[in-house]
Amino acid sequence: MAFKLLFALLLAGSHLVASQNSTVPSSTIAAASQTSSGSISFVTSVELSVDDLWDLYVGPVSTFSINTTVEPTPIPSSSLIPPPTLYYPPLPTGQQVPLQSRNESWKFPKDFWYGVAGAAYQIEGAVKAEGRGPSVWDVLTHRVTNYVRTNDTGDIADNNYYQYKEDIARIAAIGIKTYSFSLSWSRILPFGSGPVNEQALRHYDDLIDTCLQYGVTPMVTLYHWDTPLFLQNLYGGWLSPRIIPDFTEYARVVFTRWHSKVHYWFTVNEPIVFCNFYPLPTNYFKNTSIPKKQQPYFCGHHVLLSHAAAYHLGKGINSSLSISFKTNGGYKIPLTDSESDAEAVQRAWDFQEGWFAHPTFLTGDYPPRLKEYVETFLTPFTEEQKGQIVNTSDIFAHDAYTSDFIMAPDTGIDACLSNTTHDLYPACYNTTKVYSNGYWAIGPASDPGSPWLNKATDWVPAFLRYMQDTWKPRDGIAIAEFGISEPYESLRSSLASILLDPVRSSYYRDYLSAILIALSEGVNVVGTLAWSIYDNLEWSQGYSVKFGIQYVNLTTQERYFKASAFEYVNMFNIYQEK
Ligand code: BGC
């Protein structure tokens, strides 16, 4: 099926390179408008196909030799033998290690779910297959110089689009019961709105059916950062309220199609991250006149309204669905016991988790410190909108990888608040990974490519308690992503050295122990999703930073379990009630 849409094509002020074959009419200049930099941008209305979009904005893409859906290859039984134990040899010889036994006061309830997660652009590959339209990430990886440190793209990634049956068979074989993946919006609606691509729907039909066939619960995220390029160029993506009806319509298509097969749904992944990505590099997408510091909050505003609309629509289609927002952030520890650091911590909660959790769980509106800032430029939510937004997350689905020490800016909070050009304005708090003695890190570092992340699992019980007490989620808390990049993993050359990943293994063991402590103290944690099902495109770090509990040989597309996969599953084998 050929999709065509009328599209306003920017002819000036852009880095577009038209390919030989695309049709760019030289006439019909429909409008001339002023860009934010003051230059005149000429705009025309032309009919563009999906292929034209690719040719104009992305250019040629790579493909892999396996390019039709394949049946799973048998999983060698040797790859299901657990690794040598890391902590407690069963028969200590030489160095004496005290035997550790099961802690009898810990347990995961029977209905606690545990699984692995991935996201469309990071794993699928097959970017032009079967009618998929480009997303902003195709442009960022292909066209924007140095956006991805290693110049990698998602063109092939883990070839999951064709090898998903094997991927599901593998996780089932090791005992993982849940698989969380995101849909590619621009596969389903190549232009983000308008015509629906039935081939893409059929692909996801089979992905979901394969999960069910293997007894793996599918969990679906609608949006994991891959905004359809067409919408980004048409109106600036999340910066425009026009995204609300488009996202809602997309939600209608997918809820209608899969509500009887998929129970758990996440609307948007980590808006703190993708809203703070704005401004996307200038000259590649539609320009905006919204000031840079304000852009994240316009984006967040439209995310909240889109999420709320999708939530109500989904519940209208099937009231038994579990639909949640997916937020991210770490535990916030005051660096010192000063009053200003305590205030900085509160600002950090309000500008991170609170930005989306306060409206969706508590009031329908922003938390006080954030509201004070955004009400200077955003149209406040009406009472009706607040009513739409509040109580629209069934689970507190939080991607909680790490913790941070928080402190007031060097200049003090008040000086920051009265200086709109301050680096830390408007949030006006600072963070560090080093204790106040200036010597020890908060926990072992991850790969240098993810400097935001240390293993800081000691604070997990306090964090979970804080979430429950503060936002009181109706159906409990899920750690919807957690994981760590094994330091320097990409420098290891032998397969055997890659597969033993002690930092990641201890991360999962200690993190899950921390959840067990929280559970034993009455915190309602309902599930966990390890990030990630396997190594994948780590956004601007390309394939150089590895988060997988499986290694993928990107030349052959073979998969291998790492030791951490066994550690993860083993904690449930030991502690889950049968
Ligand atoms: C994102 C993933 C990302 C992971 C590791 C999460 O915040 O949802 O897409 O790969 O962090 O950086």
Automatic annotation (TrEMBL):
Organism: Zopfia rhizophila CBS 207.26
Keywords (A to Z) from UniProt: Glycosidase, Hydrolase, Signal
One term of GO molecular function: beta-glucosidase activity
Record-stated family: Belongs to the glycosyl hydrolase 1 family.
Pfam families per UniProt: Glyco_hydro_1
Record-linked InterPro entries: GH, GH_1_N_CS, Glyco_hydro_1
Official protein name in the record: Glycoside hydrolase family 1 protein
Signal peptide: 1-19
Residue ranges of coiled coil: none
Segments crossing the lipid bilayer: none
PANTHER family: GLYCOSYL HYDROLASE, LP05116P
Domain of life: Eukaryota
GO biological process terms, semicolon-separated: carbohydrate metabolic process
